[in-house]
Protein 1
Amino acid sequence: MYEMITSSSNSIIKEVKSLYRKKDRWMKKNFFVEGIRAVRECVDSNANIAYLVYSDMLFSINGGKELLDKISQENYNINYISDKLFNEISDTEKPQGILAVVSYDLKKIDEIIKDKENFLILLDRVQDPGNMGTIIRTADAFGSNGIIVTEGCVDIFNPKTIRSTMGSIFHIPLLYYKSACEAIKDLKDRGITVITTSLDANEYCFDVDFKRNFALIIGNEASGVSNEIIADSDLLIKIPMPGEAESLNAAIASSVIMYEVLRQRLKF
């Protein structure tokens, strides 16, 4: 179904603009993705698309017409607007003329726990959108069965975070806890070992058995994991670094550890 929108006062244009604000994203349970690759991933992943918006600039982008033809064959609410209006709602410097508003559903812990080989990521005050998106993407690539985001983290539905996930936002279950300590309690109640990254740890990540059920905690970029969470953890680990660098970027550090999890589980 196609609709033509000609006014910036239209309710759909207003809603897309409102989704730049975290409070509106969480109240409406919607976020948006923009660009040919992101929208195609959204469609291919069978995400819950509320509606799509496109403009003529889409046809000047390689693959644009093909994408529109594809979504036109489905029962989506598709809205056509001018390039000028699209520039008003776009979050990118070089818009590609297509955007999808997606409804999301955060999971509960019992919806994602498996009988064995649980591998969860819990994020403590991770504040950079790029780091957040990269961690989600890496967790998806290396087989995590869920990301737990806690109060103090950057919004997972921030447009910059969404772009950084490169589509993985549609593949991996997401959970939210106001309190990280509450999340840890729920994990332990379900037999999940809590493993935390810390520069003060005595064990290296390569010496730890990651074939067990566990959750890996990644901390704030500047201050690491909070002392309260460290006290609640079952095990502290670190990455060996023989060079002169004191620490690694949060996304890089988590990627190193997640690869070690995959290596052990696949017995490389």
Protein 2
Amino acid sequence: MRTRTLTVTYDAQDPARLAQFWAGMLGREIVEDAGGVLLPGDDTQVSLRFAPGDAEMVRPNYMHLHLTSASPDDQQHRVATALRLGGGHLDVGQRPEEGHIVLADPEGYEFCVTEPGNNYLAGCGLLGEVACDGTRQVGLFWREALGWPLVWDQDEETAIQSPHGGTKVAWGGPPVAPKTGRNRQRFDLAVTGVDLQAEVDRLGSLGATRPEIGADGTVMLADPDGNEFCVRETDR
């Protein structure tokens, strides 16, 4: 059976610590794997991986997470949990009247706890959205790469979502921040029941470029905006 699953990978100076933080925030188990420390998701929630990396933190980051909340008390509980686990508040120019709360994890990656009643993320689960910097072209690229429906396409902003529902993956449209080096966050695409070279060729036909093969057989590609992502075979 052919399947394609998506993981968001973060470079981290201390992958184990960052995995502990996000496991506490999301209520997930921690699994060691060849690429780092993994927090497995499911059909409706994307997985997170934390890999060794020591590149300097430069904002704005390529992507950030949106966590949902069910009530004002639940939102404050999630914020308190983040602070207890080593996160902190972050000022990115948000206005007081905005309902979401911006935080940073222990390595400085920004994320938001959204306000209750957010209709856009209704039914998306705790990890409601992976919000990315990128053009509409990249959103359309990932729609075809993953075979996920396009659930938002307006004013150059796009979002896709698994056919099973759950976490949305979105791109904010222009202006897109200049890319100054290798991203510290990236997508990992795991394919099952598909020849890896055939998958690389398919992604190339959709607009992916710059294939590089790692020592472990993983292939690194770039999306139409030049953002790196990995493709690997898996047997499950």
Protein 3
Amino acid sequence: MRPFNSRATRPTSAERVLSVLTAAHSMTVVSDGLHPIEVHRLDGTAAMGHIHLHEPSEAVSTTPGPRIPVRLEFTDIAPTPVRDRMRARVTVTGLLSAPYSTEATESTCMEFGQAVFEDHGGRAFVTLDALLETDPDPIATNEAAMLTHLMDEHSELVPLLLRLAQPQPDKGVVRVLPLAMDRYGVTLRLEYPGAHRDVRLPFPKTVAHLDQAGPQIHALLSAARRASHRNQLLA
């Protein structure tokens, strides 16, 4: 839970899990005793269009039979050609009342066990209640297009954003690329000859609707230009 009256500047683990499930292009389904099944082309329906999560009490089948353990695996890959493109892994475990089939015309019912979110910062366990209480990020399904547009069409603006980094980056940066974007801000990856690190730039205001994302990006750029101008005056 967020502290009272505090403004979030980065997504929670539950928000990141939900964004991955919403924007994923593919997933791996691993059932007990079966080979992994790669499911592609999730666009339009997302993962939860193929798998419907239920609380254990809601998923009990009226037909007696064994419950089949299942694991859904998702890999969150940066849409830009940064060094080390894997941003996170999400694993959702649970039980099925019947073997998973890619030929099913309706969403497969899955009794929820747990969701595990893993990134460079560590591992977090996310409950179904936390997912159900989380609002989808309005940027999630458009993030890839927005980041690639920023890099391909306005690449000269990306280094400008570094003026907002606190503390200022060490010398020796050889490349700066946009790594991630969510309703709270933008993350840049700074690449050095033998290493890299990420810089988080929060938006002035949290994005509630997709059409608010553009103005928030422009607000960051305006702030970066003002910071650049101040630095030139002090030089």
